[in-house]
Each structure stands twice: as structure tokens, then as C-alpha cells.
Design a protein that fits this description.
The protein has 537 residues and is mostly helical. Among the domains are: 11-119; 396-467, Serine Threonine Protein Phosphatase 5, Tetratricopeptide repeat (Alpha Horseshoe); 469-537, Alpha Horseshoe (Serine Threonine Protein Phosphatase 5, Tetratricopeptide repeat). 58% of the residues lie in helices and 5% in strands. Strand 4 and strand 5 form a beta hairpin. The longest helix is centred in the middle third of the chain and has 21 residues, at 301-321.
Amino acid sequence: MTKRVAPGESTAALAEAATSAVATLARTKAATDVMVSRSIGQCFEREDPACASPWIAELARRAPGSFTLRYAKAHADFLSGHYGRASQMLARIAKSPAAPKAIVPAAKRIAAAAEASRIATAGFARRLVAGGRFEIWHAPGADKILVPLLDEVLSKAAATLSVRLGPLPTAPIVVHIYPRVEQLAAVSGLTTTQIRTSGTIALCKHNRLMITSPRDLVFGYAWADTVSHELVHYLITKHGGAGVPVWLHEAIARTLETSWRDTSAPDLDATERSLLWLARKRRRFIRLARMHPTMAALPSQQAAQLAFAEVHHALLWLHHRAKSHTPTARIGKLIARLGAGESAFEAVRSWSGEARFPTSWWASLRRGEDATGDKIKPSKSAQRRAILRFRRVARRRAGGSAAARFVELGDRLLAINRPLAAVLEYRKAQSKGATDDVMMLTRLARGLLALHRHVEAKVVIDDALSRYGEHAPLLVLSAKAAAGLGDHDGTLHWTRQALWLNPFDPALHNLRAAAFTAKGQPALAAAATVDAASVAH
């Protein structure tokens, strides 16, 4: 299965709301008061209420009842998940004619974010996972199926990333699962259009991880890698501070996002190589500055994918210049430099030994070289990054080509349970050049399975998966083909792969139940049956 990166928003830009408040906090007369105020502001830049707590207590001793103290307490409440209380206090500060003018804009922004968070999470259930290190907030209903899966993903991710980037906080890390992408937009400050255009379906912001439920996308998405990606952002912010630029945030997150399930040395995958090769051919790279303040502002999902390929290349290229045989083991040292106050380019240059970065790296990329200096070549077997299909978005009808007409006719026949006739039409479409249409290949396989032509269906599915490894329906069909061939272990393998993309397909859980039953594991079969019922509505 290929990796679909959720274009996250680096928290390097998230100190904006705190900056105005810090300026106000630092205007107290005594030098020690300035130090206390700045310390609170630095904690807010790292979105760390635990860090701010002792300083706020000191501020309360020095300036009880002050607007500065009220703001600091309310901001800490917001970061701690007390959204209603924070919203009310910040709104009162923003409306008060006695409040210092410099603090009002920050109070308004944080009040709006707190209120949006309160509304979005009203009625959410809360579950501790991974030994109490994470707290999952989710809407009642089908999304609860993600909780045990997140327990596995986050347990593994925490074990790996805490070694590479720094320890997790003692308080549970909050993870929000929003049923709809519109809710993610409301709490993040992004527009729904930006999210749909760029494919931004998860963020690390406001001291929490936020993901969109896979059920709000037609075919799901790589949500497991995505939540691991956002955890990387979280730890970078905590240990590196607000000075880590977006491109470096995303480079590290892209490099480490799959470490929860894959401990091999990171490298460019075939899709990234093809994207970089094509960008060089077209002379259309995306400059690092265009990635700021968020990749969500890029004009398309394809542009976001290219941007991730570029920054992944940059980090691997830097590792190679540093002659590191274990690339990911050294990232923590870079984060520590940034956390100590070094500027990004200074830290990267001293860490890697590459004094001319980024100029020398750009030159290498323009020459079409990979991290080792070899030529980047496109792969004919490269899997394609999934273009996310959100629900409630109108889709254009197929064009008027002969192949498209055969596909449309096949779809109509399949819909009225005429699989043999549908298969014939899909084969006609293939003869007219429609050999790379994932939707047509999926329906062709579905028709073959309906005819119990499992071996033939498997050939079609395997060919499609070689190019579209993140298309969840293909994984479920592969499991159905395995089940039809009596391969129960294969059925469980393919359904498990599908869980990390879209666990909301009842067929997936029914297949697991049947396979567990055949293997003489009734307890697991019963659990899978319950899961099927929980996502059926």
C-alpha cells in the first residue's frame, strides 16, 4: 500500500495569535515581570499549557486580577480543551473597553477558535488509548470503530517517534475525529474550499491532533499514516518551538509518518520519483516559500503531492550530505538545535554540513538527481497518489469517447445485476484504450466476482493495485477474491490493509467474520460481526 500524505498545516505559523498577547504581557514595568510574561508567551508558541502553568501561577502572584492574567488563563484553558470556559473569558476580554488594545485582537481570534471547537465537539465521547497517552474525542456512532485501531497506530507511533523526536508530554495528547470536513474547516481557520482543493484532511493545531473521519470521503483515505504524520508535527512543535519552517515540518513528518508500521530506512517512493521527474521536465517545481504558511493554500492536491515529494527529497539529500547511515536517528538533534533558538537554515547547515543549502539542493533537484546523486527516472509501475474524493461534491459525467460510453453502459448493467453483460462492456472499453481507469477496473473486478470468476478477477485486481494501492474498494475486492478461492489468511490480510484506509465498509467486516469462522476463531468472528453492524448505518 502506498502512502497518502495528508497535507498538514505546520504549527510553525501558529504563534500568530500568541504574538500580540506576548507583546502586551511583556510591557509590565519590572524586569522580572517581563521575564514571566515572555516565558508564558514562549510556552504558548509551543502550544504547551503545562509549560505555561507555573509561570501563570507566578503572574497571578504578581498581578492578580489583571487582563494579562485573565488572557493567559483563558489561552491555557483553550489549549487544555476547556473550550466553553476559554471562549467566554476571551470574549469578555475582547469586549471590555478597559482591556489593553494590543491584547484584544489575540483574544478575539482565540475566542473564535475556542467557540468553534466547543460547537464541533459538543456531545463527543472521550476514550483513552495507548496506555492513557492519548485521548480520542469522537462523535457518537460509527466513528467509535476507529478507537481500537487508533490504539494500535498511536501505541506504535509513540514508541518510535518519542525516541527520534523527544518524549511525549505527561498529559494525554488529544485527538479529535470530525465527522465532516466542514467541521475541520470551522476549527482550523481554513476554508472548506482550501481543504477540498489541497486535500488537507488533518491538522496539528491548538495542542491537539485533528483528523477528518474516513467516512466523509467516498473511498476513505490513509488515515493511519495521517494521524502518525500529525503526531510528528505535534512533537516537532513541543521540542523545536515555533521557529521550525513549514517546509522542514513537512519534510520530517513525511519522512517519519510510516514509521509506526515500517522501520526500514526512508527513501523516495516510485510515485515521488515520477512527480519530481515530471516537474523537472515541465520546469514547474514549487519553491519552499510557496509552502508557507500552510500547504493547504496550494492550488491543487497534485501541487501538494509535489511539494511533499520535494521536501522529502530535501531531507534525504541533507542526510546523505551528512553521511548518515541511519537518517531518522539524527532528526532529534536537528529539532534540538531549532529548540535552542538557531534559525532554520543555520540549524540545517550546521547539522548537515551543507553550507550552501538550499541553493546546492535546488541545483541538484534541477539536474534531476536523487539524494545520492543518481538520476531520477520515472517508474512505469509507480503507484499513483490517491486524489481524495470528498462527499457532497458534484462530479462531472464521463466524456463522450467510445471507451467512456462502454464504461457508462457497463455501469448501468452492473447496477441492474447484469454482471456478464457489464463485463463485456468493460472489456470493450479496455479495447478502446480505457486500461488505466481505476473506477472501471474496480467495477470490472466486481462483475467478475459476481460471476464467480475469482482467478480472472484477481488478475484484474492485482494489476489495478499495482497502480492504485490506496483505492480501498480494490482491497476489499481482493479480499473477496481470496475468500472465493478459499484463502482465509489472504482474506484477513487484504481486509486488514483496507482497515487503514476505510474501516466503514460493512463488507470488509463481514469478510473478516467469515474468515475467522472458517479458521475456528468464533470470538474474533463475533467481534467482526458487531463491527459490521456498527458501520452499516
